From TrEMBL:
Pfam family, one: Beta-lactamase
Protein name: Beta-lactamase family protein
InterPro entries associated with the record: Beta-lactam-related (IPR001466), Beta-lactam/transpept-like (IPR012338), Diverse_Enzym_Activities (IPR050789)
Domain Beta-lactamase-related: 38-322
SUPFAM superfamilies reported for this sequence: beta-lactamase/transpeptidase-like (SSF56601)
Length: 349
């Protein structure tokens, strides 16, 4: 096991304005940054900022009451789980346990021969699932409290994989991005079938233990299947370890956990989202101004304001846990924190 350690130090020593934490607190106290549970900012080997608050929280809609968050507190990642699933697929691919992204999707589910016989579905690949470009009807823009939300309907279906695969074909595969937990469920199934392990067990062996992550939960649906789209619960510092792994090209110490080739492929743009961002293999991609010039970032986004932001050119990883679940403006506070607190207070690259 490799234990990731960072030096805790003053912000200015890591190339940030000395008032970084004060500005964060001012933003929270003013109400401009809302519902924050935890914020961690890392640059290189330094933990630049670590902030926790006591606040009401929930787990998959189940109230946890007021939680005094600290370094050991688990938190729902919600859809940041998808980015972790991307890493797990990459590790399985590196080991030769799963087919490559260009492989036909329905060939991985031979039990649905009727769907495989549909010419409109013939072009679907695993890569289309990873990039959410399957061309299938799917509606996750409804609240996750709404049973008509497609992911919730999938969770309630007698066969989640048939539900995800049998949705109407509305676009040619590879031509249109549609946010879909169903696509992630299919990739999770491919990982489990290829590795012969439940996804949480493969994650423990292949990713978490090498990173020194020993405390986690992976929530399951009523059928006992752990959700690769939204079920993972981690501490903020352990999610930060995963972010550093990506920034460091898949390595931790002297061990290559996931190949740099997969890191590069998964972070390369495959589609454009409905709001103009790029999308790789379960990673959002964009740009933000830093010291007067746009710099690329990649991120895992989760319901309620969960974020794992990464900016390779600045060597920054930032974890944000929030509690603004199912709110249409949940993106505002973490985006403001990332742009106006983290990036705006950088003093050098």
């Amino acid at each position: 096991m490799v234990e990731t350690q960072w030096t805790k130090g003053a912000a200015e020593a890591a190339g940030f304005d000395a008032g970084l934490e004060r500005k964060l607190l001012a933003g929270i106290e003013s109400g401009l940054i809302r519902d924050v549970h935890a914020v961690l900012i890392n640059r290189g080997d330094r933990l630049v900022l670590e902030h926790y608050r006591a606040a009401p929280d929930e787990s998959w809609g189940r109230s946890l009451g007021t939680v005094a968050f600290d370094a050991g507190t688990l938190h729902d990642l919600r859809s940041v789980t998808k980015s972790v699933t991307s890493l797990l697929y990459g590790i399985a691919l590196d080991r030769g346990l799963v087919p490559p992204p260009e492989a036909p999707l329905l060939a991985q589910f031979p039990e649905y021969a009727d769907l495989a016989a549909d010419p409109a579905r013939a072009g679907q690949t695993i890569g289309h699932a990873l990039s959410m470009t399957l061309g299938l009807a799917w509606d996750e823009y409804r609240s996750y409290a709404d049973p008509l939300n497609s992911e919730i309907a999938m969770e309630n279906a007698p066969d989640r994989y048939r539900f995800a695969l049998e949705q109407a074909v509305v676009q040619t595969p590879g031509t249109h991005w549609t946010y879909s937990g169903g696509a992630t469920a299919l990739v999770g199934a491919i990982i489990e079938r290829g590795t012969g392990q439940r996804i949480e067990d493969f994650a423990r062996e292949a990713l978490f233990t090498p990173l020194g992550i020993t405390h986690f939960e992976w929530l399951s649906g009523a059928d006992g299947v752990a959700s690769p789209a939204s079920g993972l619960r981690l501490t903020a510092s352990d999610l930060l370890r995963i972010g550093r792994l990506v920034l460091d090209g898949g390595r931790v110490g002297d061990r290559q956990i996931v190949s740099r080739a997969w890191i590069d492929v998964s972070l390369a743009p495959k589609a454009s989202t409905d709001d103009g961002l790029g999308y790789g293999y379960f990673w959002f991609l964009g740009e933000a101004p830093v010291l007067g010039a746009p710099k690329p970032w990649m991120a895992g986004f989760g319901n309620g304001g969960q974020r794992l932001w990464l900016m390779p050119e600045a060597d920054i990883a930032c974890v944000i846990f929030s509690g603004n679940y199912n709110a249409p403006d949940a993106w505002v506070s973490p985006t403001r924190l990332w742009r106006e607190i983290v990036l705006a207070n950088l003093t050098n690259l």
